[in-house]
Fold this sequence. Notes:
alpha+beta; eight-stranded mixed sheet; 25 strands; 22% strand; elongated; binds adenosine-5'-diphosphate
Amino acid sequence: MAxxxxxxxxxxxxxxRIAAGEVIERPANVVKELVExxxxxxxxxxxxxxxxxxVELIRVRDDGAGMDREDALLAIQRYTTxxxxxxxxxxxxxxxxxxxxxxxxxAAVSKMELVTKTADATTGTRISIQGGEVISVDDVGxxxxxxxxxxxxxxxxxxxxxxxxxxxxxxxRVTDAVQRLALTRLDVHFVHVxxxxxxLNAPPASSLQDRAVAVLGRDTARYMFPIIDTDPDDxxxxxxxxxxxxxxxxxxxxxxxxxxxxxxxxxxxxxAVRAAYGEILFRGRWPVAIVEVGVEPSRVDVNxxxxxxEVLFRDAQxxxxxxxxxxxATLADADLVTEAAPRRREAPLDVxxxxxxxxxxxxxxxxxxxxxxxxxxxxxxGGVLEEDRLRSxxxxxxxxxxxxxxxxxxxxxxxxxxxxxxxxxxxxYIVCEGEDxxxxxxxxALAERLTYESIKASAAHGRLKQQTMLEPIVLQPTEGQxxxxxxxxxALESLGFAFFNAEDGSLHVTALPxxxxxxxxxxxxxxxxxxxxxxxxxxTVTTKEEAIRSMSCHLSIRAGQRLTPKQVVALLRGMAGSHxxxxxxxGRPTAIRVTKGELERMFKxxx
Length: 607
Ligand code: ADP
Ligand code: MG
């Protein structure tokens, strides 16, 4: 390991280019700076610890190169660094910290103790500093490396201290900062302790997947897939792992982005990852993902903000494109079925809680009297369907729509090919058996997805088939509804609706897309029309799109409807022919898998 370069005071021009303003806003910044220093010093193992959210105590130990006494004393002065010698270095520097002010800033607002020793020294050095004043410097026995203790953060800056959110939130930010670093340096052993409890222990890992198990927990990591870089030769390298839609969260907290090996805040990349998921994600959700983007250092501005470390790309479009393509290709190949796996309490932040499965299996005592009645619903299992695995799924019959789209159906996922319907329960869910798993399918969610795709395909070739009404449907719209109609009129007419505003204020519907007339009763058509004229717009989709979604919902098999075996087969075949069979148009899952393993766990057949 290289010995530390001489710490030197920076050229004045250099530090003028360094962002002014405090680097240190909260404990998480302190921890990040200290861990980055440890990594820069070549540490193989970094141990961090906080108490009181980091305000009371922060301790960071590493087994890196350490410092001799002279360097250590210099290091705690402002604008000293061993990492760059000239102005030009600022642009190309590969190390994590380069402002040369972190240690000094932290020392100025806390009671700090620094113990450090280089490999060739026999004794180490201990320096105590309070509010930036060196209190003592002694010899001390120590192993090679550096240990820094920061106590009473902001004890002399009451305004800043009042700004702290308390041990819980501040501690969580610290943990997040350590996790982000741990996800970028697989070769380093990270241990993180919060208030005496070890919440992270990540030994060196040979793959990101292994590291993700240690950082995010097995229940998350097992549902993540390696990103395929679709264009490995271009200027942007994309790698990482992305999670099943079911892991998605209401915010970006578990969308970890690094650029050239540094954890950064990169909205461009986060948005691109989300875009790749498209409709599979429930509205407003963000996927769990760990994404590393590699670009030539000169094409990226890091550190536009000293504390948050946002990045700006010179070619943001290109980066976003590469990320989106890669993630999309990954998802196209991945098995995205929602897993009914109970969350075992082994998430890193929940240690201390016993690792009991968190499953609520209510005991059901079979009622003999009802057994006969119940079997009426399960007789799909016998006879024809037993043989009817969906291997010939390509000749599916669409639920609605003019022509089958078998020509543009890609490969059918293997879990779907072997799906065998067993029955319908609660007049709402289709129960199927697949490879070593049971599948529950929400009949309405699936039917809605298929209808939607079918209408969309038809609408793409111009207007839907139109049916002129012999007797117009006469509506008495409110002022509000008339307003909505005017806003949506073009979109609705492009789908085959025709309206006539009568002089008496009533609204005549003179034509409809013919599929509505064929499939819906008069009453159902009325309900749909009310729906189309209601003011609810989500803002994210176009009016035409919204109208198609609304029509799909009204045209589709509903929950609570008893299905014939033929309908069940039609639905499953439709699923095999669908582009996006796993989410309804609102992003709810259409299918849930309970694996044999999960069942065995629930029945305590295995651990
Ligand atoms: P910077 O990291 O930007 O150089 P810092 O204030 O964070 O500035 O650190 C100042 C210097 O102190 C570093 O350049 C490095 O030489 C030294 N240093 C800080 N922490 C460590 C450490 N854990 N191990 C070895 N050297 C360190
Ligand atoms: Mg630093």
